[in-house]
């Protein structure tokens, strides 16, 4: 599974977790507690949730207590009996442990609360205050990344909800260091990564009572110089999402891509050249062989003609040597043979010779 698919899956899971978190807020109140016994205590409460404030260790029957918000008295406790105001379902005081609770917190519930303690004679014995600061829970976190000149990556972590959120960053499970960051403040919601730094980047957002994180798979930046639909584009973009170039201009990145194609074309041309040279050489040698054979044939025919002429001369010479034999007057007898067998030699015989 590629980085892009992982990013989609992670975003879907984060969205599901966020939905479940919102459902939990809707179905059950978020509750925070603080110690309000020291004077001027600062307490935090979640909007829509509940805050519980420890006001005293225990309630004495000989004393009475009064809790005021702004200028309104919201609760009075006398002899362990709680006298509620008009919003009795919103405020609750538990005498056994001296805890004060406020339900279904709204922005109007924030501010200063005053606790006054009176003795049995009604004289004010103690006066303390606590301040309630309300925070909305972090409901969502979004990561946005963009390429900067020279290949740096600017990443912003934006959260919705929450008051005074605190940010922290990790890359591939480890805290970011100066070797990976150009910006030194890793607690801010915006960081700048150095060129060629990429991986699983996580931004965590924390408030006093809520915590959410967002993960993003980042890639390195690449410079493109191309033409798309007749428009010249020259900018830094993420390498994995580079879909801008339709008609790329010749540059170092495009040459690297075309190297295998160029090598294949050159190899094919070389093979064609070698084959062509071989065919040319074969065709050139073949006529020379025929010419040599014709030359030899001519010499053979000349020799044969010369031999025929010599033979003809020899034959004429022999013919010239033949003399006509004189006719014998007397019969010559060879044994029993008579002149009827070997008579006068006809001249035609010698002529034929």
Question: TL;DR of this structure?
Answer:
By secondary structure, the protein is an alpha+beta fold. The chain has helices spanning 3-27, 252-321, 347-352, and strands at residues 31-35, 41-46, 50-54, 64-69, 72-78, 81-84, 91-94, 99-102, 111-118, 124-135, 140-147, 153-160, 166-171, 174-175, 190-193, 199-206, 211-218, 221-228, 231-238, 247-248.
Provide structural commentary:
The strands form 5 sheets. The chain has a 6-stranded mixed β-sheet, with no helix packed on it. The protein has a 4-stranded mixed β-sheet with strand order 1-3-8-7, with no helix packed on it. It is built from 3 helices and 20 strands. Among the domains are: 31-135, Immunoglobulin-like; 140-223, Sandwich (Immunoglobulin-like), CATH 2.60.40; 224-249, no CATH class. The longest helix is centred in the last third of the chain and has 70 residues, at 252-321. It has 353 residues and is α+β, with helices and mostly antiparallel strands.
Which residues form runs of ≥5 with pLDDT under 50?
12-28, 319-324, 328-353
Mean pLDDT: 76
Distance between the amino and carboxyl termini: 111 Å
- Structural shape: rod-shaped
What is the count of helical runs? 3
The CATH architecture category of one domain equals Sandwich
Sheet bearing the most strands, described? 6 strands, mixed
Give the strand order of the largest sheet, numbering strands 1, 2, ... along the chain: 2-10-9-4-5-6
Per DSSP E runs of 2 or more residues, the count of β-strands stands at: 20
Helix content: 25-40%
CATH class of one domain: Mainly Beta
Order of helices and strands: HEEEEEEEEEEEEEEEEEEEEHH
Rg (C-alpha, Å): 60 Å
Q: What oligomerization state is this entry in?
A: single chain
């Amino acid at each position: 599974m590629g980085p892009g698919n992982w990013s989609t899956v992670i975003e879907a899971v984060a969205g599901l977790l966020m939905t479940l978190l919102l459902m939990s807020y809707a179905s059950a109140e978020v509750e925070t507690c603080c110690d309000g016994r020291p004077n001027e205590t600062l307490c935090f409460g979640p909007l829509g949730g509940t805050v519980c404030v420890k006001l005293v260790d225990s309630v004495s029957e000989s004393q009475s207590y009064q809790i005021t918000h702004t200028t309104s008295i919201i609760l009075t406790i006398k002899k362990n009996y709680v006298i509620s105001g008009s919003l009795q379902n919103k405020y609750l005081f538990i005498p056994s442990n001296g805890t004060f609770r406020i339900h279904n917190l709204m922005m109007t519930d924030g501010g200063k609360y005053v606790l006054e303690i009176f003795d049995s004679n009604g004289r004010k014995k103690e006066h303390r205050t606590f301040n309630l600061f309300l925070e909305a829970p972090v409901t969502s976190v979004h990561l946005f990344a963009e390429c900067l000149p020279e290949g740096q990556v600017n990443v912003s972590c934006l959260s919705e909800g929450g008051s005074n959120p605190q940010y922290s960053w990790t890359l591939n499970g480890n805290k970011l260091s100066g070797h990976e960051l150009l910006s030194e403040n890793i607690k801010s919601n915006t960081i700048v990564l150095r060129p060629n730094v990429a991986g699983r980047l996580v931004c965590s957002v924390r408030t006093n009572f809520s915590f959410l994180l967002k993960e993003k798979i980042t890639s390195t930046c690449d410079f493109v110089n191309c033409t798309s639909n007749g428009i010249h584009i020259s900018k830094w973009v993420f390498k994995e999402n580079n879909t801008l170039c339709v008609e790329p201009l010749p540059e170092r990145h495009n040459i690297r891509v075309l190297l295998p194609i160029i090598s294949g074309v050159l190899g094919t041309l070389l093979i064609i050249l070698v084959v062509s040279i071989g065919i040319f050489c074969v065709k050139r040698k073949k006529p020379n062989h025929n010419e040599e054979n014709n030359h030899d044939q001519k010499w053979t025919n000349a020799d044969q003609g010369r031999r025929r002429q010599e033979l003809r001369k020899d034959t004429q010479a022999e013919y010239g040597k033949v003399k006509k034999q004189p006719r014998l007057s007397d019969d010559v007898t060879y044994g029993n043979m008579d002149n009827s067998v070997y008579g006068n030699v006809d001249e035609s015989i010698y002529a034929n010779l």
